[in-house]
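user: can you give me the structure for this one chain? tokens are fine.
assistant: on it. calling the predictor now.
[tool input]
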Amino acid sequence: MTNTPPASTPRGFQPSTRRRNRIAAGVALAAVAIGGNALIYSNLNESEPAVQVVRDVPAGEQITSDMLRTVDVDVDSSVNVIDGDEVDSIVGSYAKVRLISGSLVTWGALQDDPLVGAGKYVVAIQVPEGALPVGLRERVPVQLVIPADRNLTDSTESVISGIVVALPRSTDTAIGEQSLSIEVAASEAATLAAANDVRVVLTDPTDEPDS
């Protein structure tokens, strides 16, 4: 009878010491990467309180506390929102543009003074493209020159002082003209609105138009 040697027990995979070190290093790097990604995503998901309007606010309306609330938002730091802890500081200011219900409030949408002062009107005038002075911006004083009508012998040039309320939204229009909103004294509004040709002159920013 022939004795058969016992079958050897199969041995599992046993990497070398050098390979085990490499595996351990790979596991450590993976753990660091996972931890770093978790930290990044946790930072991205951090919400901060910001100011939101709870109803439509027309341009020129004064801001009251019942128009506002704070909400937690996750926005990039470059977004110009107003921090929730500053909500009380904007009460009493005025909406420079229309604020839509549910939108976040930015500093650029507010101003300290009323959009239209007492005894003033806002008139929209049409000016040719390229006829606006360089450096023109909102709330700067201007002189509005209405040339004399050549068809009328008794017509004379007139000059009206005003303040820019809103600049044209587009710099290229189909009709070749741009609309510019100007605040003027109530007594000058009808004359300016009826004028077909108005030249805009940018004045010294320290000059204030007559009331």
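assistant: here you go. The radius of gyration is 34 Å. Strands lie at 48-53, 68-73, 94-95, 110-111, 120-128, 141-146, 158-166, 177-185, 199-202.
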